[in-house]
Amino acid sequence: MNDNGHTKIISLLGGGKKLTARLKSLTEENVNEKTVYSWVQQGIPDRWKVAVARCLLEDNIEITQYKDLLPPGMSIDNLTAANNSIKIFSDSKVLKATEEEILVNIDKNLAFNIYHLMLKVRRFEEKVGQLYSMGLIGGFCHLYIGQEGIISGIESLASGDDCFITGYRCHAHMVSRGESLLNIFCELLGKDGGSSKAKGGSMHLFKADKNFFGGHGIVGAQVPLGTGIAFANKYLNKKAITFCFFGDGAVNQGQVYEAFNMAALWQLPIIYIIENNQYGMGTSVERASAMTELFRRGESFGIKGYEIDGMDPLSVHLCMKKIYEQVLNENKGPILIEAKTYRYRGHSMSDPGKYRTRQEIQETRENRDPIERVRTFLIENNFCSEDELKTMDNKIKEEVLNASEEARDKDLPKESILFDDVYYENGINK
Predict the structure, then answer these.
(1) pTM for the full predicted model
(2) Where are the alpha helices (DSSP H) in 207-312?
(3) Do 171 and 316 belong to one domain?
(4) SS3 state of residue 202
(5) Strands of the 335-340 sheet, one edge to the other
(6) Within a domain: residue 286?
(7) Tally of structural domains, the chain
(8) pLDDT tens-digit readout, 253-287
(9) How do residues 37-82 score in pLDDT, each as one tens digit?
(10) Are 281 and 171 within one domain?
(11) Per-residue DSSP letter, 311
(12) For the CA atoms of 301, 303, 306, 311, what is the dihedral angle to 10 degrees?
């Protein structure tokens, strides 16, 4: 549709002011007159097209010439037949805690604990990167550096009964669930005492006693598994939430939508979290997804979606706390979250990351780093001094170093255990 077409639509619907009011009423979304008039040059965004089409339909305006207002798969006949029963927007929306909300609801201890976990994850991952570069860690290895704000903001509100499951970028989730750094290092180095008995490596970390169910190497495979965990919890009447993490690359997998359907059908207590770090391996979201508002991917199943800023850990905590309580206490699951974040390193340690510029990475580090964000909050509110935070950092570095050195000194597992734990039968590992 050309610019003149957009101008005509606005005119047919009573002008910018009237159309703005109608869209607000119809969708319960924020839009202003300036934005509406910007569509003349920029085009109507996908998320507003159906709403505009509905306005045309309500005014008995022939919309045959405006077919491009309808999303793929929806015909004019479909829109007409649906009449007022069609839901233009779900309750999906962008959530962001204000500075005032953060000041009122985030105390020193909470901010301190979030900061401590983020720092622990980052120093751990930095050491893992060093060990990998030294040839001491084999296989694939995916680091979480830059994304720490998501897991820290969620772990700070989750209970021990809640279940976590994720993909192959799983080191941070293992740390957050309370596994010792020594055991994780042993697993990564293939040494005796590893969390998965040195059989899983970087992509298959588990801590069942803390309800962390992996680390999964197959893209998107954790989503149906996490859905099954949520089903089990509901079946057994357990008051627990399943947090199922996956990436923007996995969101286009078919098994993800099969799981969404089941979760919605059975109203399972699960929160799906898309950790959108902007690149699926080396492909940007814009090049891989026809609809880039990933938090809306569950709408066809009636799943509410929310976008949050994964680089703002304190906002993550407050936004997720509200959602968590709704799912836990009001049975409003499932929920889909898109946490906008950014990884500083390549997709894996073997990825040189040539598909993006150094400037892009540097600007994100300087302006949006989640650790620096909370560090500034702690100092500006006189919760901690710079010296106290430096001392914390030094202690964490020492803890990480000692654990890595101890793991390096460990023996390799005995070959005799290679075929243990292949399957479980009658209470016995086979």
Answers:
(1) 0.79
(2) 222-235, 254-266, 285-288
(3) yes
(4) coil
(5) 93-94, 304-309, 335-340, 270-276, 242-247, 163-165
(6) yes
(7) 2
(8) 999 999 999 999 999 999 999 999 999 888 888 88
(9) 888 887 888 778 878 887 887 787 777 777 777 766 566 666 655 4
(10) yes
(11) T
(12) -90
